[in-house]
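Weekend entry, working from home. Most of the wet-lab plans are on hold until the incubator is repaired, so I used the time to fold the two sequences that have been sitting in the queue since the last round of cloning. Logging both here for the record. First:
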Amino acid sequence: MLRKLLILSLCAAAADLAAQPLCQDTFRRTPTYRCQDPFYLPVCGCNGITYRNQCAAYWQGGVNTWSGGVCTGFDVDIFPNPFAGNEPVIINISFPDNVSGSLTLRIIDAWGGSVWQRYFSNVYRERITLDPGFLKQGLYVLVVADGQGNYRSYKLVRA
């Protein structure tokens, strides 16, 4: 009798797991997939990763469910990158819903010199249009630091 009860409860647990949707579909996940949607509307995937938009979450991350906005910390999106000519470079910064913070952005050249810096206080979402006319052809690093000592770095390439 005890054995039947154990088997029955295991079957019920398996049926409950089967009813829950999986967070990610690893067969659909294609990190190099090129979304045709150029808009930056960040979403937080069920896996706790922030994606650029729903297309990126679905195809690049293979995520099945998400919610709007940034998961944690802050998110930075740079478009286009690499860039050429004098087309503007758009830098989007987002914090999670109902959160704001201060950020310092700095562009550093290949020799470690700071070529551009800007400070933002009390931002929730910020869209920065950068005129790249002052940047020569080459490799740069964009460093974004918040007021709590967290930072992220991004490669910028001027072709």
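Second, folded right after the first finished:
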Amino acid sequence: MKEIEKIVERYAITDWKTEQTALAIVVRVEASAYRRAGARMYVSSTGQWIGGISGGCLEGDALKRAKIAILKDRPSVVVYDTMDDDAHQIGVGLGCNGRIEVLFMPIDPTDAQNPIELLKQIKDTRTDAYLLQVIATLETDLLGWTVKEKDAYQLTERLQLATDFFSQAIEEVKYKKKSQVFASDPATQILVERIRPNIRVVLVGDNYDVNAFVGIAEALGWEIHVAGKQRKLDRSIFEKSTRVYTYETVAEISGDDYTAIILMSHDYRIDYALLKIFGKLEVPYIGLLGPKKRMEKMQTELDREGVGLNLAELPNLYAPVGLDIGAESPEEIALAITAEIVGVFRERDGGNLRERLGPIH
């Protein structure tokens, strides 16, 4: 989502009197590749670009292809193939032994349904969004046509498909939680792209380790919320956070499927009081800073008070919080926690990739 937000920001300040633009989007990946389907690169005729479609090895060639799309005012699909590790085949080296298809789309700012306008409409949603884009067709005027999930009927009518074609395709993508290409016939293919909302992180604490966490969360493009004694918080916290709460008002925040809450106040009473509240929220991740005996002490107190909350049975409670990487400094601890959060949201256990069987993605 961070890449999408930066592209939308650059699109908003584009000077259409002096420049034209194109959007490059990875629409299909086979075997190994640095980026996945949905990776985007926004290119200006001035030579500037935002985003990326690879680890840096394709961007130079993509810049040329985007300018060609702008000049011809026509979308095209380019295949970068190094399955046989032959860099001469395309003039660049992927270094990944993969096959990547990239759609280059000239952007018309007068078209309210151009791909970036659609990204603007969904970038602030708090649930998964789905875009449908034609990536192969015999009808040249249909290539690149993009619609949101609710407008899938437009493609259904244009392609004369069964009324449930896209509803079934979208359900499959929702089930697999992964973008996928579907063929309506041998010549026509549509990418159904799943776009996740931004991760919202709620940091409860006002000590110096919060500063380190906010720095990493900002770099990741997360939506940051902080609660603490405002006189103790660094000024930068107010600049980087979507909202700053007091300990008394943070319970007002609502959770969703992309919310992570970390209790790191270093104050037992504060963490305990808020754990009783947040422990009942249906969010994927609640982290509790401190040793395991701290959580056990809380459980004893919960039982004494008759609070029906069994911390050991909460699947979304991570206590002690963070991956086991031997973190010591505030920055390392923040890294261990943010890595664990990413793993939880991607449904991975955070192990070493060298131990993984099969592809990375």
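Plan for Monday: verify the second prediction. The chain has three domains: 1-111, 125-197, 200-345.
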